[in-house]
Amino acid sequence: MGEDWSQLDLERLRMIEIAANIHRVKIMMELSKKGDGTVTSLAKSLGYSRQLVKHHLETLNRGGLVSKRRIGNMEFYSITEDGRTILSEILKIHLEVGRGEVEVCKPVVKEKRTINGAGYLPIIAGITPVLISLIKGVFENQPLWIIGGLILGVLLYLIFSKLIKVLT
To answer: What is the pTM for the complete model shown?
Structure first.
């Protein structure tokens, strides 16, 4: 499994990370189609709020995926060459994954461990002191034994239930 990680282009990965957001992809696609746009025009064409578009455009601009130029009091955004390249790569990967051409890493699913009979353990641990104290309390006429056994039984039941939950 000795993969050579030295070939990774960290700057390209950083750009992909920035662009890999559904809103940013849609904004970049819209800029790619239109050529340029303002926050207002993009918000209107995408059906997003101006604040959302402004936030994502600023992020894309800092990442070098879109550029901003000011004409008078208007700010126009356009997709950069790096932005076009990254958008193209993201869309290509999206299509390949959709067609099953790319092996996608499966999320790790933690297996549930089971302990045979574990469901009965809290009940047994709780009932045992209750029964013992009940018998002793009745035969020796000691009501405090019954109450103490009941409290101990409940506590042991709760402790063992929590312990089983943690272990499985």
So the answer is: 0.56
